[in-house]
Amino acid sequence: TAPGPRSYTTLRDEAVKLFNSLQQLESERDPVPLMQGVLQTCLDLPPLVDEIYCQLVKQTTEPPAPGGQGDLHYWQLLTCMSCTFLPSPPVLRFLRFHLDRTENHFPASEMAKYACFIREALEKTKGRECVPSLEEILVLMQRQEMICTVHCPGVPACSVAISSHTTAEEVAQELVSRLGLSQSPNLFALFEQSRRREQPVGSATLLADVLTRFE
């Protein structure tokens, strides 16, 4: 299920809880729920975003087993963070230095591939309404895209590859092109449909946020 409303204590106490979660992440067999929990806390308590970025940089600097499962779990959470939140400018500079250093020290490694992916994501991330869904976290851990199925009137459903940064307008434009409707005078938009209602999806809305709400 998608994360629901939570009750929080002080920022200091929540920072300690997040630090403990990061320690647990290293040996977690299924890290996805724990990652989503960390992301949800950061979404609810924005002052902790910089703290988690700094902790993840620390954990991925000179790890005892570079490229091991625990190390990669930290890189995977850092990947999810980069597709969800922008850190403050000083932390962003610190993070970019860390990414450059990792690529230089471990060229062609999994860590370097995550570092490259994170750098590119940070150029596109503007902030999210929802944390990544469990499915999105899984594909981000593999540095892949999600497949979104869009049902179009009169034609079979269309599958569209989307990233964490893809907007509804971009998907609508791609479908218009695929269906040969580029010269049509009509306007096209995506609609979000549930059992209770159907509503248009705003052109600037991230499709990844819509998918999280479905989850």
Automatic annotation (TrEMBL):
InterPro entries, per the entry: Actin_motor_Myosin, FERM_domain, MyTH4_dom, MyTH4_dom_sf, RA_dom
One Gene Ontology cellular component: cytoskeleton
SMART domains xrefs: MyTH4
Organism name: Toxostoma redivivum
Start and end residues of each Ras-associating domain: 144-215
MyTH4 domain segment(s): 1-141
Residue ranges constituting the FERM domain according to the UniProt record: 146-215
Gene Ontology terms: biological process: signal transduction
Originating gene: Plekhh3
Protein name from the UniProt record: PKHH3 protein
Superkingdom of the organism of origin: Eukaryota
PROSITE patterns with a match to the protein in the record: FERM_3 (PS50057), MYTH4 (PS51016), RA (PS50200)
PANTHER family associated with the record: AGAP003327-PA (PTHR46049), PLECKSTRIN HOMOLOGY DOMAIN-CONTAINING FAMILY H MEMBER 3 (PTHR46049:SF5)
